[in-house]
UniProtKB/TrEMBL annotation:
Protein name, per record: Serine--tRNA ligase
Record-listed L-serine binding positions: 231-233, 262, 285, 383, 385
Gene Ontology biological-process annotations: selenocysteine biosynthetic process; seryl-tRNA aminoacylation
InterPro entries: aa-tRNA-synt_IIb (IPR002314), aa-tRNA-synth_II (IPR006195), aa-tRNA-synth_II/BPL/LPL (IPR045864), Ser-tRNA-ligase_type_1 (IPR002317), Ser-tRNA-synth_1_N (IPR015866), SerRS_1_N_sf (IPR042103), SerRS_core (IPR033729), tRNA-bd_arm (IPR010978)
Length: 427
């Protein structure tokens, strides 16, 4: 959420930022709504002040036995008492309307983010590794998985419908190995604290990280009003909601390996085959809570941590700087890691690492106490996938495919595979 005071002071900057994102200008309407709210608040304050002073004047008038004045003042106090509730209600409604409007405005892009319309305007930051070369023909992951006998979409559909997958035996173990490898890497070498957190949250948590109110259709909701998390970013970031932290203890770095749940609203017809776009998938999430001065450096660090996963797996990938038109709602700057999939003969996103400034901190009312002791500042937050386990499984399957249809297990995963070095067709 953006600060209305900043918008009042920088209306042109807001409209310019929205234009970069392909959105219409909003500063004039927001400022007008805020002025109306402030006028009502000032009127209410004036009425309260007058009621208090008139109440004191009643006592003075009665002490002077000026009953006519006392009765007149009593009538004025009664009138103010009757008028105030309506003003208070109007002020509450205007405040709610303003907060709702502010909650739907995307974050302001960082100054070094390339301006563009969509994914075609993203910029390559770096390329790591090389595309594999074989004598045999590449295959897509669902072809490989079904031929091995360990990937079943028909039974998944019987259980849950479209966009679900059943993995069995060695592929199920490979998926588990990937998640454990990521978690171990980030906790033992990258300094992240492992967290086991709920998979269902209240409205406030979804609001705090920006999923609500704008993106409710992308989420799953339980019958008792809780939401299934679309990413562990929600729970990890909201760990500090409503708190005041010590600046000396920042950054806080959290990681979690959890299922993620997404309705994939608006994705009809996209990636309908296979497990690229699922309603449920595993992801190793990275979250950092830091101060204003460290946020951009922390973004580079987090991205490097996610890249290290792909490097150790020996996967070819590129890191993209997203343009203003392709960034997520709460991001100021985002790097996407795109892994090479030989079966599709293209790059596909496998991780997205974003720095959000104080956008989420303000929504969560999470602050840190400044080192100099002079007040508090909203925390700056970052989140990233370290990485999406399902998509990483797809990448390993397609990049480590052998001519006989088996899959070689990457060396870094061997400690998790119980002696399995190659995934072969079910007997």
């Amino acid at each position: 959420m953006l600060d209305i005071k900043w918008i009042r002071d920088n209306p042109e900057a807001l409209d310019a930022a929205l234009a970069k994102r392909g959105a219409e200008p909003l500063s004039a309407s927001l400022i007008a709504l805020d002025q109306k709210r402030r006028a009502v608040a000032q009127s209410m304050q004036d009425m309260q002040s007058r009621r208090n002073s008139a109440s004191k004047e009643i006592g003075a008038a009665m002490a002077q036995k000026n009953m006519e004045l006392a009765e007149k003042l009593k009538a004025e106090v009664a009138s103010l008492k009757d008028t105030l509730p309506a003003a208070e209600e109007e002020e509450r409604q205007l405040t709610a309307e303003l907060n709702d409007a502010l909650s739907r405005i995307p974050n302001v892009p960082h100054e070094d983010v390339p301006v563009g319309k969509d994914e075609h305007d993203n910029v390559v930051a770096r390329v790591v590794g090389e595309k594999p070369t074989w004598n045999h023909k590449p295959s897509e992951h669902f072809e490989i998985g079904e031929q091995l006998g360990y990937m079943d979409f028909e039974r998944a559909a019987k259980l849950s419908g479209a966009r679900f997958t059943v993995l069995t035996s060695q592929l199920a173990r490979l998926e588990r190995a990937l998640g454990q490898f990521m978690l171990d890497l980030h906790t033992s070498e990258h300094g992240y604290t492992e967290v086991s957190s709920p998979l269902m949250v209240r409205d406030d948590a979804m609001y705090g990280t920006g999923q609500l109110p704008k993106f409710s259709e992308d989420l799953f909701k339980t019958t008792d009003g809780r939401w299934l998390i679309p990413t562990a970013e929600v729970t990890l970031t909201n760990l500090v909601a409503g708190e005041i932290l010590d600046q000396e203890k920042l950054p806080l770095r959290f990681t979690a390996l959890t299922p993620s749940f997404r309705s994939e609203a608006g994705s009809a017809g996209r990636d309908t085959r296979g497990m690229l776009r699922q309603h449920q998938f595993w992801k190793c999430e990275l979250v950092s809570i830091t101060d204003a001065d460290s946020a951009m450096d922390e973004h580079e660090r987090m991205t490097a941590c996610a890249e290290e996963v792909l490097k150790r797996l020996g996967l070819h990938f590129r890191t993209m700087t997203l343009c203003t038109g392709d960034m997520g709602f709460g991001a100021r700057k985002t790097y996407d890691l795109e892994v090479w999939l030989p079966g599709q003969n293209t790059y596909r996103e496998i991780s997205s690492c974003s720095v959000c400034g104080d956008f989420q901190g303000r929504r969560m009312n999470a602050r840190y106490r400044n080192k100099d002791g002079k007040g508090t500042t909203f925390v700056h937050t970052l989140n990233g996938s370290g990485t999406a386990v399902g998509r990483c499984l797809i990448a390993v399957m397609e990049n480590y495919l052998n001519e006989d249809g088996s899959i070689t297990v990457p060396d870094v995963l061997l400690p998790y595979m119980g002696g399995i070095t190659r995934i072969e067709k079910a007997a």
